Amino acid sequence: NNTTYYDGAYVISSKASGATLLTADDALYEKASREIPTLHLKDYKK
Q1: Residue 5, Cβ density class (10 Å: 0-12 exposed, 13-18 middle, ≥19 buried)
Q2: How far apart are the first and last CA of the chain?
Q3: C-alpha 18: how far from chain center
Q4: CB 3.0-4.6 Å disulfide test: which of 6, 13, 28, 38 passes with 33?
Q5: pLDDT, mean of residues 2-17
Q6: What is the pLDDT of residues 10-45, one digit of tens each?
Q7: Is 39 within 8 Å of 20 (Cβ atoms)?
Q8: Which residues contact 25 (CB under 8 A, 6 or more apart)?
Q9: Whole-prediction pTM value?
């Protein structure tokens, strides 16, 4: 498990604020998307 303190803080902050988590980290995306709305940076479109 390579989840860092910062990864957890991003997930908790997104969950608490009701925001979608935007990340370029594949592992974080896979884990976070099970819990909160998550968007991978490669899928982001303006």
Answers
A1: exposed
A2: 33
A3: 12
A4: 38
A5: 94
A6: 999 999 999 999 999 999 999 999 999 999 999 998
A7: yes
A8: 7
A9: 0.85
Bridge partner list, 38? 21
Contacts within 8 Å (CB) and 24+ apart, 1-10: 2/27, 3/27, 3/28, 3/31, 7/31, 7/32
Q: What angle do CA 22, 10, 19 make, to 5 degrees?
A: 55
Question: Is pLDDT at 1 greater than 70 in this prediction?
Answer: no
As a whole number of angstroms, the distance between CA 1 and CA 17 comes to: 25
Which amino acid, 20? T
pLDDT at 3 over 90: no
Cβ(11)–Cβ(21) below 8 Å:
yes
Structure tokens at 39: 């968007």
